[in-house]
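Researcher: I'd like a candidate sequence for this fold, 465 residues long. If you have to choose between options at a position, lean toward the conservative one.
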């Protein structure tokens, strides 16, 4: 039956442009993934009424999968609420609801189905649920949107709808209720999910995590840029000592590797409260090493900043071709294989006039780090050293950095020595730091805040340049 739902879904996808579905944050759960997610625990009395919530139900495939699992496990009294506002997918959802009724009848089970045509984030319910299963919409919303306003307790910076769905679902779970969400990994780190993550870490007993070894295998053909995870948990403030991690093989849902991680090891208790996502035992060793470091780049007196030049805001000050008095503007394309290559063969601006003081940076030794890497990059950390005495281009006392590049400074304003730059660069580019940044960050972005929080053993600062 799941295959039939998937077939009708594919017909909808064939007649709906991918760009339209992307604007809706719409990525449908494949049948195999739905079956895996529906592996709920049989921990309720068989005569209990089981309430299931599927917010952002889409085609209803998760609802069907979990009802099928509950029926096969012997439950006879079911109540399911499906929430979906997209009228275009409604014919597929209605088909799925019909099939849910039929399968319940075949098991002689009592099943009440509620279809809610409301925005889940704004929806109010007097009920609490035993199971919530969800593939939420993945889309950014404005900080002043009705969704962000309604969920302001969970908003920090740029909100994403899927994070608000995660928090709202926890609110609607009864104590010990089961929680199954498939989402990007981005909520596990980064400042924008700080409040959502803090709430989830506090209210959820995380029991199991599925990690996909390839981002392309989950939503095939959809060009999903973020790595995906499935989170299994239950509502409760007492966390199990161990969390099971499953690494799913490319092209299948078979478990390539499973291991137990100590909850207090991966539920990182620093100011950002990251949820670290190890993929093997060696990753756990790296986490231990990093956790033993008492300092960070920030506490050691260093500070990564984001380049001040936002192109669309400074079109009057940036130039593709050098003009008298210009200074160089370093951007991602100039960071190639660990070295600085300027100028580059590009049609983009590489120079900035000095008539806007807010864009100027004193020419000092630094390390430049790309904020964005590509899926094809072997390393997530793409950086290079910049030595002021070697970069005499344009013979000016200033340089500047485009907004997609982070650069390193000392908090006390002193210039870093060559020895410092060499040591810090080697640390950043080491295999251990490369692996660690992937553990705390499931996207291709590295923001300055994450770099500043990276653990760091204090280094000896040479007075020699």
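Model: Candidate sequence:
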């Amino acid at each position: 039956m799941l295959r039939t739902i998937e077939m009708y879904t594919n017909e909808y996808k064939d007649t709906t442009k991918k760009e339209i579905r992307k604007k809706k944050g719409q990525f449908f759960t494949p049948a195999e993934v739905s079956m895996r997610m529906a592996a709920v625990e049989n921990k309720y009395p068989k005569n209990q009424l089981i309430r299931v919530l599927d917010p952002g139900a889409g085609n209803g495939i998760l609802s069907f999968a979990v009802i099928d699992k509950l029926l096969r496990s012997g439950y006879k009294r079911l109540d399911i609420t499906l929430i979906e506002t997209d009228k275009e997918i409604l014919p597929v959802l209605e088909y799925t609801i019909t099939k849910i009724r039929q399968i319940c009848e075949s098991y002689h089970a009592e099943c009440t189905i509620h279809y809610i045509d409301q925005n889940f984030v704004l929806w109010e319910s007097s009920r609490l649920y035993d199971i919530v299963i969800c593939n939420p919409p993945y889309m950014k919303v404005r900080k002043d949107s009705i969704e962000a306003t309604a969920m302001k307790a969970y908003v920090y910076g740029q909100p994403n709808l899927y994070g608000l769905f995660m928090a709202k679902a926890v609110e609607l779970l009864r104590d010990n209720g089961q929680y199954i969400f498939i989402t990007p990994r981005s909520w596990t780190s980064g400042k924008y999910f700080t409040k959502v993550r803090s709430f989830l870490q506090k209210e959820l007993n995380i029991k199991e995590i599925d990690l996909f070894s390839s981002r392309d295998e989950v939503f095939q053909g959809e060009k999903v840029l973020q790595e995906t995870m499935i989170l299994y948990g239950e509502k409760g403030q007492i966390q199990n000592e161990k969390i099971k991690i499953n690494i799913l093989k490319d092209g299948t849902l078979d478990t390539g590797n499973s291991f137990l991680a100590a909850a207090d090891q991966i539920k990182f208790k620093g100011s950002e409260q990251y949820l670290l996502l190890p993929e093997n035992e060696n990753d756990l060793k790296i986490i231990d090493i990093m956790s033993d470091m008492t300092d960070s780049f920030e506490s050691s007196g260093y500070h990564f900043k984001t380049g001040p030049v936002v192109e669309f805001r400074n079109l009057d000050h940036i130039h593709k071709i050098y003009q008298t008095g210009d200074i160089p503007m370093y951007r991602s394309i100039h960071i190639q294989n660990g070295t600085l290559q300027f100028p580059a063969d590009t049609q983009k601006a590489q120079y900035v006039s000095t008539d806007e003081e807010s864009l100027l940076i004193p020419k000092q030794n630094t390390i430049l780090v790309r904020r964005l890497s590509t899926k094809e990059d072997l390393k997530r950390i793409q950086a290079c050293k910049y030595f002021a005495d070697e970069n005499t281009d344009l013979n000016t006392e200033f340089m500047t950095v485009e907004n997609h590049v982070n650069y390193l400074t000392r908090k006390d304003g002193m210039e870093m020595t060559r020895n410092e730059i060499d040591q810090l660069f080697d640390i950043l580019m080491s295999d251990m730091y490369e692996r660690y940044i992937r553990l705390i960050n499931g996207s291709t972005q590295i923001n300055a805040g994450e770099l500043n929080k990276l653990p760091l053993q204090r280094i000896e600062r040479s007075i020699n340049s």
